[in-house]
Amino acid sequence: MATVFAVAIILQEMLTENNSLKKIYLEAWEWLNASQPVYILIISVLGIVFNVFVLTIFCLHKKACTVAEIYLSNLAAADLLLVSCLPFWAVNIAYDFNWPFGRFMCKIINVGIKMNVNCSIYFLVLVGIDRYVALVHTMSHGRMRRPKYAKLGCLLTWGFGLLLSVPMLIFREVKYFPEYGIDACFLEYPSHTVELLCDGMLIVFSFIIPVSIISFCTFKIILALKVQTIGRVNAEKTEQKATTLVLAVLLAFLICWVPFHIVTAVDVLLRADVLGGCHLTAVIDICNQIFNYLALFNSVLNPILYVIVGKNFRKKVREVFQQWSVKKTVSSESTRSNLTSTLKTMP
Asked: Which residues are in coiled coils (predicted)?
C-alpha cells in the first residue's frame, strides 16, 4: 500500500514551481487521508458480516459440501481474513501513517493482506475451472470433480498465496522518518531491481495469469452453450444460470482489479525509467490509493455474487433456519414438559 509520506518528497521536488498544481495534489491527499479510514472500516464490517454468514451456513448445514461449495467456503475464509486485517490500516492512516502496532504486527498484517488477496483471486480461478469442467467436459467431470481433489487444490492455493507474500514478510519494516516525525510501516527493498521484480511478479501472478484462466473458462462455457441441443432444455437452463454467475463474477473481478493493476504496471514502468514525468508519478500515487481500495471491495462482492445470489445457497439458508426452528421448538417443548412434571410432583 502506498503512503502519503512516500510521495511527499516527489511533491516537494516537482511542485515548488507550480503552486496551483501543488495545492491540487495536497487537497487530493488531504481528502484521501480523511475518507480512507471510514471507507476501510465500512468494507471491513460488511466483509466480515457477509463472509461469516456464508461460512456459518456451510458449517451448520447437515449435508457435506460439494466441490463448488468447498471452493466457495475457502473463498469466504480468505476474504474474511483479508477484511479482518484492514482495520489496522484504517488506524494507520488515521494516525497520519504513524504505525502504532510494532514491527511484528507490521509484518503479519501485511502478510495477511497480501496472502489472502492472492488466495481470494485463485479461489475464483478454481471456481471458474470447476464450472468449465462441469459444463464443457461433462463426460469426465465425475472423475475430475471430487471433494478430495478440491481440498488438495485449496491446500495448494493457501500455500501458493503464502509463498507470494514472502516479500512482505522479509522487506516490511517499521522505519523512523525524521522529516515527518513518524514511525512508518514501510516496504523497504534491498535494491531497485528487487523492487521491480516483486512488482512484476504481482502483475503476472495476481492478475495476468488468473484473468487469462477465468477468461478462457468463460469463453469455453459460452461456446458450449451455443451448441446445446433444443431437447436439453433443463440442462441448458442450468448451464445458462451457471454461466451468468461466472460472467457476473468475472465482470466484478475486472472492474475491481483492472484499474489497480494498470496503475501498478504504469508505476513499475516509471520506476524502471521506461516512462518519465514527475506529474505522472504524483497522479499514479494518488490513483494507486484509490484503486487499491476499489480492489479490496471485491472481497465484499464475492459472497454476494458467488454465494448469496445462488439458488442452492438460498436453499441451504432456508434449511439451516428450519433446523434452528425445529431445535428451538423441541427445546421449548422439552422445557415445558420438565416444568409440568416438576409441578405434578410438588405437594
From this structure: none
